[in-house]
Amino acid sequence: MLKRDSGLNRVTQWLAEFFGEPLERVADEQRAFLGSDEGRRADREVMVVLVAAAVVLTLQYYWFVSGQSHRVISGIARLLPASLGESLTSASQSPENAQLVAHAYWALGMIGGYVLIPALLIKVVFRRKLSDYGAKLSGATSCWWAYVLMYLGILPFVILASYRESFLHTYPFYRLAANEPLWPRFLIWELLYALQFVSLEFFFRGFLLHGTRRRFGVYAIFVMMVPYCMIHFGKPMPETFGAIGAGVILGFMSLKTRSIWMGATLHIAVAWTMDAAALLRCQGG
Fold first, then answer.
1. Which letter does DSSP use for residue 175 in this model?
2. Which long-range contacts does 91-100 make (Cβ < 8 Å, 24+ apart)?
3. Residues 136-169: pLDDT tens digits?
4. Tens of pLDDT along 225-254?
5. Other beta carbons less than 10 A from residue 237's beta carbon
6. For residue 257, which of 22, 15, 30 has the smallest C-alpha distance?
7. Percent of the chain as helix, strand, coil, to the nearest 5
8. How far apart are alpha carbons 274 and 99 in whole angstroms?
9. Quick one: which of 188, 201, 41, 16 has its CA closest to 110?
10. Given a cut of 90, is residue 67 above it in pLDDT?
Protein backbone atom coordinates (compact mmCIF):
# COMPACT_ATOMS: atom_id res chain seq x y z
CA MET A 1 0.00 0.00 0.00
CA LEU A 2 2.82 2.39 0.87
CA LYS A 3 4.53 1.69 -2.45
CA ARG A 4 1.26 2.22 -4.33
CA ASP A 5 0.65 5.50 -2.49
CA SER A 6 4.23 6.59 -3.16
CA GLY A 7 3.84 5.84 -6.88
CA LEU A 8 0.52 7.68 -7.00
CA ASN A 9 2.07 10.68 -5.27
CA ARG A 10 4.89 10.78 -7.81
CA VAL A 11 2.42 10.67 -10.69
CA THR A 12 0.30 13.39 -9.09
CA GLN A 13 3.39 15.53 -8.50
CA TRP A 14 4.54 15.03 -12.08
CA LEU A 15 1.12 15.98 -13.47
CA ALA A 16 1.05 19.06 -11.24
CA GLU A 17 4.46 20.12 -12.50
CA PHE A 18 3.77 19.35 -16.17
CA PHE A 19 0.43 21.17 -16.32
CA GLY A 20 0.61 23.49 -13.33
CA GLU A 21 4.02 25.09 -13.88
CA PRO A 22 3.28 26.70 -17.28
CA LEU A 23 -0.19 27.80 -16.16
CA GLU A 24 1.23 29.41 -13.02
CA ARG A 25 3.99 31.06 -15.04
CA VAL A 26 1.50 32.54 -17.50
CA ALA A 27 -0.77 33.68 -14.64
CA ASP A 28 2.19 35.39 -12.91
CA GLU A 29 3.12 37.16 -16.14
CA GLN A 30 -0.46 38.28 -16.62
CA ARG A 31 -0.72 39.66 -13.08
CA ALA A 32 2.61 41.47 -13.44
CA PHE A 33 1.55 42.99 -16.75
CA LEU A 34 -1.91 44.07 -15.58
CA GLY A 35 -0.38 45.64 -12.49
CA SER A 36 2.12 47.66 -14.52
CA ASP A 37 1.61 51.11 -16.02
CA GLU A 38 1.59 49.55 -19.49
CA GLY A 39 -1.07 47.06 -18.47
CA ARG A 40 -3.37 49.80 -17.18
CA ARG A 41 -3.32 51.61 -20.51
CA ALA A 42 -5.22 50.68 -23.66
CA ASP A 43 -3.50 47.57 -25.01
CA ARG A 44 -2.42 48.54 -28.51
CA GLU A 45 -0.71 45.21 -29.16
CA VAL A 46 -3.77 43.11 -28.39
CA MET A 47 -5.96 45.35 -30.54
CA VAL A 48 -3.52 45.17 -33.47
CA VAL A 49 -3.14 41.38 -33.14
CA LEU A 50 -6.90 40.74 -33.08
CA VAL A 51 -7.73 43.17 -35.90
CA ALA A 52 -4.84 41.78 -37.96
CA ALA A 53 -6.12 38.24 -37.39
CA ALA A 54 -9.57 39.23 -38.63
CA VAL A 55 -8.10 41.01 -41.67
CA VAL A 56 -5.79 38.11 -42.57
CA LEU A 57 -8.57 35.51 -42.33
CA THR A 58 -10.93 37.70 -44.36
CA LEU A 59 -8.37 38.30 -47.11
CA GLN A 60 -7.52 34.63 -47.25
CA TYR A 61 -11.16 33.63 -47.60
CA TYR A 62 -12.01 36.09 -50.38
CA TRP A 63 -8.69 36.13 -52.21
CA PHE A 64 -7.41 32.60 -51.81
CA VAL A 65 -9.96 30.11 -50.52
CA SER A 66 -12.51 31.17 -53.11
CA GLY A 67 -9.88 30.75 -55.86
CA GLN A 68 -8.49 33.67 -57.81
CA SER A 69 -5.38 32.00 -59.21
CA HIS A 70 -6.01 32.68 -62.91
CA ARG A 71 -6.70 36.36 -62.34
CA VAL A 72 -3.54 36.81 -60.26
CA ILE A 73 -1.35 34.82 -62.67
CA SER A 74 -2.71 36.87 -65.58
CA GLY A 75 -1.82 40.04 -63.70
CA ILE A 76 1.72 38.78 -63.03
CA ALA A 77 2.09 37.72 -66.67
CA ARG A 78 1.26 41.24 -67.85
CA LEU A 79 4.14 42.60 -65.77
CA LEU A 80 6.67 40.19 -67.32
CA PRO A 81 8.32 40.33 -70.75
CA ALA A 82 5.90 39.03 -73.38
CA SER A 83 7.61 35.67 -73.91
CA LEU A 84 7.86 34.92 -70.18
CA GLY A 85 4.30 36.05 -69.59
CA GLU A 86 2.99 33.78 -72.33
CA SER A 87 4.99 30.83 -70.97
CA LEU A 88 3.66 31.41 -67.45
CA THR A 89 0.06 31.65 -68.66
CA SER A 90 0.40 28.59 -70.85
CA ALA A 91 1.97 26.47 -68.10
CA SER A 92 -0.58 27.52 -65.49
CA GLN A 93 -3.55 26.83 -67.74
CA SER A 94 -2.41 23.48 -69.11
CA PRO A 95 -4.74 20.67 -67.97
CA GLU A 96 -1.96 18.70 -66.26
CA ASN A 97 -0.88 21.71 -64.16
CA ALA A 98 -4.25 23.34 -63.46
CA GLN A 99 -4.94 21.47 -60.22
CA LEU A 100 -1.44 22.04 -58.79
CA VAL A 101 -1.55 25.73 -59.71
CA ALA A 102 -4.88 26.20 -57.92
CA HIS A 103 -3.70 24.38 -54.79
CA ALA A 104 -0.30 26.09 -54.82
CA TYR A 105 -2.00 29.47 -55.07
CA TRP A 106 -4.08 28.61 -52.00
CA ALA A 107 -1.05 27.34 -50.04
CA LEU A 108 1.10 30.36 -50.90
CA GLY A 109 -1.78 32.65 -49.93
CA MET A 110 -2.01 30.94 -46.55
CA ILE A 111 1.76 31.19 -46.06
CA GLY A 112 1.78 34.87 -46.98
CA GLY A 113 -1.13 35.74 -44.72
CA TYR A 114 -0.10 33.60 -41.79
CA VAL A 115 3.59 34.59 -41.80
CA LEU A 116 4.43 37.76 -43.73
CA ILE A 117 1.78 40.07 -42.29
CA PRO A 118 2.27 38.98 -38.63
CA ALA A 119 6.07 39.05 -39.02
CA LEU A 120 5.97 42.60 -40.36
CA LEU A 121 3.77 43.71 -37.45
CA ILE A 122 6.03 42.02 -34.91
CA LYS A 123 9.26 43.48 -36.30
CA VAL A 124 8.10 46.92 -37.51
CA VAL A 125 5.15 47.86 -35.28
CA PHE A 126 5.86 45.98 -32.03
CA ARG A 127 9.66 46.04 -32.51
CA ARG A 128 10.02 42.62 -30.93
CA LYS A 129 11.65 39.32 -31.87
CA LEU A 130 9.81 36.56 -33.73
CA SER A 131 11.05 34.17 -31.04
CA ASP A 132 8.81 36.03 -28.56
CA TYR A 133 5.88 34.76 -30.63
CA GLY A 134 6.73 31.07 -30.68
CA ALA A 135 9.34 30.98 -33.46
CA LYS A 136 12.25 30.10 -31.16
CA LEU A 137 14.17 26.86 -31.67
CA SER A 138 15.73 26.53 -28.24
CA GLY A 139 13.66 24.21 -26.07
CA ALA A 140 11.35 23.32 -28.97
CA THR A 141 11.93 19.58 -28.54
CA SER A 142 11.81 19.55 -24.74
CA CYS A 143 8.44 17.74 -24.75
CA TRP A 144 8.89 15.74 -27.96
CA TRP A 145 7.51 12.59 -26.32
CA ALA A 146 4.18 14.34 -25.67
CA TYR A 147 3.79 15.08 -29.38
CA VAL A 148 4.64 11.46 -30.23
CA LEU A 149 1.93 10.30 -27.82
CA MET A 150 -0.53 12.75 -29.38
CA TYR A 151 0.26 11.40 -32.84
CA LEU A 152 -0.20 7.81 -31.69
CA GLY A 153 -3.48 8.82 -30.04
CA ILE A 154 -4.75 10.45 -33.25
CA LEU A 155 -3.60 7.66 -35.58
CA PRO A 156 -6.46 5.19 -34.87
CA PHE A 157 -9.05 7.91 -35.50
CA VAL A 158 -7.39 8.76 -38.83
CA ILE A 159 -7.51 5.11 -39.86
CA LEU A 160 -11.17 4.82 -38.85
CA ALA A 161 -12.05 8.12 -40.58
CA SER A 162 -10.45 6.88 -43.81
CA TYR A 163 -13.34 4.40 -44.15
CA ARG A 164 -15.87 7.25 -44.31
CA GLU A 165 -16.95 8.55 -47.70
CA SER A 166 -16.82 12.17 -46.47
CA PHE A 167 -13.14 11.68 -45.63
CA LEU A 168 -12.35 10.27 -49.07
CA HIS A 169 -14.27 13.11 -50.72
CA THR A 170 -12.01 15.60 -48.90
CA TYR A 171 -8.54 14.01 -48.85
CA PRO A 172 -6.11 14.26 -50.42
CA PHE A 173 -6.74 17.77 -51.70
CA TYR A 174 -4.64 17.02 -54.80
CA ARG A 175 -6.44 14.34 -56.80
CA LEU A 176 -4.14 12.07 -58.73
CA ALA A 177 -5.26 11.36 -62.28
CA ALA A 178 -5.36 7.76 -63.49
CA ASN A 179 -1.79 6.41 -63.70
CA GLU A 180 -0.33 9.75 -62.58
CA PRO A 181 2.94 9.28 -60.63
CA LEU A 182 3.48 10.90 -57.25
CA TRP A 183 6.39 12.96 -58.60
CA PRO A 184 6.44 15.77 -59.41
CA ARG A 185 3.04 17.37 -58.90
CA PHE A 186 1.65 15.46 -55.94
CA LEU A 187 4.87 15.61 -53.92
CA ILE A 188 5.37 19.31 -54.73
CA TRP A 189 1.87 19.87 -53.40
CA GLU A 190 2.62 17.88 -50.22
CA LEU A 191 5.69 20.06 -49.54
CA LEU A 192 3.64 23.22 -49.98
CA TYR A 193 0.96 21.66 -47.77
CA ALA A 194 3.57 21.12 -45.05
CA LEU A 195 4.83 24.70 -45.27
CA GLN A 196 1.25 25.89 -44.95
CA PHE A 197 0.97 24.03 -41.62
CA VAL A 198 4.15 25.65 -40.32
CA SER A 199 2.64 29.00 -41.24
CA LEU A 200 -0.69 28.10 -39.65
CA GLU A 201 1.01 27.16 -36.37
CA PHE A 202 2.96 30.41 -36.36
CA PHE A 203 -0.22 32.39 -36.87
CA PHE A 204 -2.49 30.67 -34.33
CA ARG A 205 -0.13 29.17 -31.73
CA GLY A 206 2.43 31.93 -32.19
CA PHE A 207 1.21 35.37 -33.23
CA LEU A 208 -2.38 35.14 -31.97
CA LEU A 209 -1.64 33.19 -28.78
CA HIS A 210 1.51 34.94 -27.60
CA GLY A 211 0.31 38.30 -28.87
CA THR A 212 -2.62 38.17 -26.40
CA ARG A 213 -0.98 36.12 -23.61
CA ARG A 214 0.05 39.01 -21.37
CA ARG A 215 -3.44 40.52 -21.40
CA PHE A 216 -5.56 37.37 -21.24
CA GLY A 217 -3.21 34.88 -19.59
CA VAL A 218 -4.21 31.26 -20.12
CA TYR A 219 -7.51 32.42 -21.65
CA ALA A 220 -5.49 33.43 -24.73
CA ILE A 221 -5.68 29.73 -25.64
CA PHE A 222 -9.45 29.99 -26.00
CA VAL A 223 -9.27 33.33 -27.82
CA MET A 224 -7.07 31.59 -30.40
CA MET A 225 -9.12 28.38 -30.48
CA VAL A 226 -12.34 29.99 -31.76
CA PRO A 227 -11.07 31.22 -35.16
CA TYR A 228 -8.90 28.10 -35.43
CA CYS A 229 -12.03 25.95 -35.20
CA MET A 230 -13.83 28.15 -37.72
CA ILE A 231 -11.21 27.74 -40.46
CA HIS A 232 -12.19 24.05 -40.49
CA PHE A 233 -15.78 24.83 -41.53
CA GLY A 234 -16.51 22.87 -44.69
CA LYS A 235 -14.42 19.89 -43.65
CA PRO A 236 -15.97 16.72 -42.15
CA MET A 237 -17.75 17.55 -38.88
CA PRO A 238 -15.66 15.21 -36.69
CA GLU A 239 -12.50 16.97 -37.88
CA THR A 240 -13.99 20.39 -37.11
CA PHE A 241 -14.96 19.32 -33.60
CA GLY A 242 -11.52 17.77 -33.22
CA ALA A 243 -9.99 21.16 -34.05
CA ILE A 244 -11.46 22.53 -30.81
CA GLY A 245 -9.56 20.02 -28.72
CA ALA A 246 -6.45 20.25 -30.90
CA GLY A 247 -6.45 24.04 -30.62
CA VAL A 248 -6.59 23.91 -26.82
CA ILE A 249 -3.94 21.18 -26.49
CA LEU A 250 -1.52 22.70 -28.98
CA GLY A 251 -2.12 26.11 -27.45
CA PHE A 252 -1.21 24.79 -24.02
CA MET A 253 1.94 23.13 -25.39
CA SER A 254 2.96 26.38 -27.09
CA LEU A 255 2.55 28.21 -23.78
CA LYS A 256 4.60 25.50 -22.06
CA THR A 257 7.48 25.33 -24.55
CA ARG A 258 7.13 28.88 -25.96
CA SER A 259 7.65 27.28 -29.37
CA ILE A 260 5.44 26.27 -32.31
CA TRP A 261 7.86 23.90 -34.05
CA MET A 262 6.83 20.55 -32.57
CA GLY A 263 3.18 21.52 -33.01
CA ALA A 264 3.91 22.17 -36.69
CA THR A 265 5.71 18.82 -36.94
CA LEU A 266 2.71 17.04 -35.41
CA HIS A 267 0.31 18.84 -37.74
CA ILE A 268 2.35 17.86 -40.80
CA ALA A 269 2.65 14.25 -39.64
CA VAL A 270 -1.11 13.95 -39.14
CA ALA A 271 -1.90 15.66 -42.46
CA TRP A 272 0.50 13.45 -44.41
CA THR A 273 -0.90 10.38 -42.65
CA MET A 274 -4.44 11.41 -43.61
CA ASP A 275 -3.42 11.83 -47.25
CA ALA A 276 -1.57 8.51 -47.25
CA ALA A 277 -4.57 6.74 -45.69
CA ALA A 278 -6.91 8.25 -48.28
CA LEU A 279 -4.62 7.21 -51.15
CA LEU A 280 -4.35 3.66 -49.83
CA ARG A 281 -8.11 3.43 -49.40
CA CYS A 282 -8.75 4.74 -52.92
CA GLN A 283 -6.29 2.26 -54.40
CA GLY A 284 -7.75 -0.54 -52.33
CA GLY A 285 -11.33 0.46 -53.20
1. P
2. 96/177, 96/185, 97/185, 99/174, 99/175, 99/185, 100/174, 100/185, 100/188, 100/189
3. 999 899 999 999 999 999 999 999 999 988 888 8
4. 999 999 999 888 888 999 999 999 999 999
5. 10
6. 22
7. 80, 0, 15
8. 19
9. 201
10. no
